[in-house]
Amino acid sequence: MHPVAAMAKTIKKLHFSRRDVIASLVSVMGGAVLYAQESSGKRILIICTGNSARSQMTAGFLHSFDAALQVFSAGTAPAPRINPLAVQVMKEVGIDISGGTPKNVNQFVNQAFDYVITVCDDADKNCPRFSGKVGTRAHIGFLDPAKVTGTDEQKLAVFRQVRDEIRLKFKDYYAREIEKKG
């Protein structure tokens, strides 16, 4: 028996739900592929321009709200890496997004999603057409914290403000739209 299967069987005997087991395996193994294969949760794509801050933070929060969700993030013009300040402010609230990589939205246009959500006005205007089925298309916009200038502390303050706005708006959207329709 494969070690992961053996571990899952043991955990099941301890009365953990399949969802908890999957979330634990994903957390421990960093297994985005395993997560996508095992989860039966809703598929959600979050889009912004650079896929380095807002969309990555949003994806992190959605995963924290419901481990069964299959959340992906992408950009219309992806940055070379995730913004380190986004990683820092998410770590402050116990969410690690450091393993993410900015991706181009075009790699997702042929896939089906329950939700495609843009989190910046530019991505909303420049979002490509999807040939895959999209259940709900929404826009929930936020200021781009990566464009703020000033001292490191001023930049961090803006990243924290945007992080908190994302958490608030997406917690509400999750409860009102995603969980409710689950």
Topology:
Elements: H1 3-13, H2 18-29, H3 32-38, E1 43-48, H4 54-65, E2 70-75, H5 84-91, E3 113-118, H6 121-126, E4 134-139, H7 152-178
The chain-level mean pLDDT equals: 84
Gap from first CA to last CA: 33 Å
Please, how many helices? 7
Write down the domain tally.
Answer: 2
As a percent range, the share of helical residues equals: 40-55%
Classified by CATH, the class of the largest domain is Alpha Beta
Strand order of the largest sheet: 2-1-3-4
CATH homologous group name of the largest domain: Response regulator
Q: Could you describe the 3D structure shown?
A:
This protein has 182 residues and is an alpha/beta fold. The protein contains seven helices and four strands, in the order αααβαβαβαβα. Strands 2-1-3-4 form a four-stranded parallel sheet. The longest helix has 27 residues. The protein is globular and about 45 Å long. The N terminus is likely disordered.
Concise overview:
This protein is of the alpha/beta class. It has helices spanning 3-13, 18-29, 32-38, 54-65, 84-91, 121-126, 152-178; strands at residues 43-48, 70-75, 113-118, 134-139.
Provide key terms for this protein:
Rossmann fold, disordered N terminus, four-stranded parallel beta sheet, alpha/beta, 182 residues, 7 helices
